[in-house]
Amino acid sequence: MKRTLAGIVLLAAGGFVFGLSPEELGGILDCSATLETLSAAAAGGEPLSRDGHYVVLTGSVESVTVVDKNPAAFAAEITLVDGRWQGLQSVSLFRCVVEVAGASFVSRIPAPGAPASPDAEIIVPDTPILVIGVVEGVRVLADGTRVPVVSGAYVRNL
Fold it and tell me: Quick one: which of 111, 121, 120 has its CA closest to 154?
């Protein structure tokens, strides 16, 4: 439900704010991409998304890793996860690494071990988020799993 609502809001806002027609919006946004479809494509070695097109993803933060804590060059990686029940016994999980950078994320990603602020925009594990970004490629995790990597242009807590 959240995904559908977020997609409708994004499409409506994009058309009103930027004066884009649906065809023009389709030229910059890949509406067919989801965390599930990107994960399946990465696992199968298939093309992930239309080159240079933005994707809109929702999921929960599994982990956050600060890559560079220098405020001038701040960079972090957010592991985004979502799932789907397979019957009543198991859940299929879908993951994605979201790379974020810039001073705007310094205050939103607390240092490891720091107590999380009650601020609603803090990005910590178990936080549901919406990400708008561009698919950059695939990363192979330590366990051999292939996951998509997205350069996050916009991250919002849900």
Answer: 121
The pTM for the full model equals 0.82
The 10 Å CB-count burial string (b at 16+, else e) for 97-115 is bbbbeeeebbebbbeeeee
Q: What is the CATH number of domain 31-157?
A: 2.40.50.140
Task: Give the alpha-carbon dihedral of 120, 139, 103, 63, to 10 degrees.
Answer: 30
Q: Where are the domains of the chain?
A: 31-157
Q: What are 54's two structure tokens?
A: 């933005």
Q: What is the pLDDT along the chain (158 residues), one digit of tens a residue?
A: 455 445 544 554 444 446 778 888 778 888 889 999 999 999 888 877 767 889 999 999 999 999 998 989 999 999 999 999 988 899 999 999 999 999 999 989 987 766 666 577 889 999 999 999 999 999 998 889 999 999 999 999 99
